[in-house]
Amino acid sequence: MHELRRVHFVEERGWSEMTVRGSGEYDGSDDNRAIYFLALDELGRVAVSMRARPTDDRCIVADIFPQLIEPESGDVRGSDIWEISRIFATRSNRLRRGIKRRNEVLLACMEAAVSAGITRLVAMIDTYLMPQAQRYPWDMRPLGLPCAYPEGEVIAFGVPVNRGELARVRRALGLRGSILVPQTAEDATLSPQEMETLLTAGRLPANDLELVKRVIAFAASKAGAEQLSAFIEQQHARRAGTGTLH
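RE: above sequence
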């Protein structure tokens, strides 16, 4: 993910003053409070990514671009407010080709926010991307007027988050139920590295969420490597033999 951030923001978009360590791009918001939402392609590779982080101690919009925020636009800092940032899609997941994965990453963030008691998302976006962002069925509200920055023009916006809004967005996207893996924070007993290894080593189709959830739940039960391998092979065999999951 960090390597792809370097490719997208530094190499392709030419953002200046970025911090590159090794082959990845990082900033001060990549800490233990950051939450990353990743959509994987059929081969388990990162296709779309977005970061969310509480704003009660740090906020990119408020700290670096305060001119984007009008006083009457409401709070952008708080323990119940997340800032979303570093949103990108790989080349093969842009425009119409990647719209489903991009939509699902935004929906996953809303799901996690509701579960965490978050009431608002704030962010900033290049103005040329506004038409694309406005096609997503969330209640996107500008926080102020656009402003130029070295690589273009940007505008800040806020999005209310609650169970009603989440249900409305799901209906608009034609989706039912949670798409998060794991679905709740309580299920997140595997580290991101362990989950990535599991997806890759197990040859799990990243777009088959029911199978992925089933295997991750089994792995989270601290099954041994042999039991996990046998379980994965069993799931593959049953799926191939019947076309359904068991």
